[in-house]
């Protein structure tokens, strides 16, 4: 698949961020269905984070800001990583999701402290 310079540049940034946190996967540009998020880039550029299952869109968020699409993509990746980590490192007396939230904050914070703050502000506290 041939990519335009905007998509190529975004792909390079995503890959660098993936490597920085040691992720085994990254949100890409292809629809694999099954609810897996992917990025669409259209003229503008306009970036969309989309997830489809059985051919139907489950989610679609749109932005013209590259930093926003990077945050959305890395939020998805770090949540997967954090939840897997929380399963392997249970904290007695704590709901697994809160263990995962802390781990996700660490991962996002290592990429951009503002991302960790933003994620924290969007979550339940109990």
From TrEMBL:
Residues 47-120 form the Immunity protein domain. It comes from Lentzea miocenica. This is Imm63 family immunity protein. Pfam families: Imm63 (PF15599).
